[in-house]
Amino acid sequence: MAVARIDLHTHSSCSDGTDAPAELMTLAARAGLDAIALTDHDTFAGIADASKMVPECGVTLIPGVEISTSHQGITAHLLAYLPDLNSPSLPDLFEKTLQARQQRMRQMVQRLSADFDISYQEVAQQAGSSPIGRPHVADVLVKAGYFPNRSAAFEQVLATSSKYYVHYQAPDTIYAVQQVIKAGGVPVLAHPRAGGRQRRFLSVGTISQLKEAGLFALEAFHPEQNPIEQAEVSEIAKLLGLAITGSSDYHGSGKPNQLGQCLTDPEVFAEVCEKGAGTPLRP
Ligand code: AMP
Ligand code: ZN
Ligand code: FE
Ligand code: FE
Prior knowledge:
With 283 residues, the protein is an alpha/beta fold.
């Protein structure tokens, strides 16, 4: 039997991906994947629709989420796999983040509107019921003809180094790991070294504190971490006794990342399935 192909980080249109959850499952099957995790930003909204497609697509679904966090002013994304979806601890976090995201987006649009003819209303409409983020303002700028695609909009006006960028208050990373554990989920630090030189990263000391709080793994293999960065993340994981994962962070047409571009080892996947309170949805 061929080695299982497992991609543990994908986004649907319930956050800032461009494919509906059901469509994402179809595309995962077409990409030859055996299992995917749906990890929309700060919401479980896509899981029900994706799960309905499991039998038809023959792809195992791991319910998950990517939680926005920050620690001492440094942004960090925390993946959580197989939490108890009825536990209130994570939805409580999401609610606070949602409000912070809205407030921050009003400020960003205010700054942008000095140079671009866009309104908060348009961005909110673009986001719909999804947690509002920079990809949605990118989409509005693209629709208005200012940029050819999301990537160009990010490069020129939405990067963290841009004068239009506004930081938002997200829950502390250590607290978020604790909440994931409380909800029975498996916490994995997403792309710890992605983003190039303009980004600030969590230190090894902080990652060690996350491990103490229950962190399971680091996402080493990710399209936005080059081989040197992947090796660095793998080194840190080895040093601290953490597992490593690999995933595509697929966002549909919103980003170049392709489904199955990076994969997770089947043995690590088995550990995730065993540790999580929730059950993998198997065909
Ligand atoms: P936010 O949470 O609003 O700060 O936005 C972060 C989101 O923007 C993440 O989902 C990233 O995947 C996405 N993002 C970051 N850089 C880019 C880029 N160059 N092109 C498209 N999406 C990006
Ligand atoms: Zn995203
Ligand atoms: Fe992320
Ligand atoms: Fe992501």
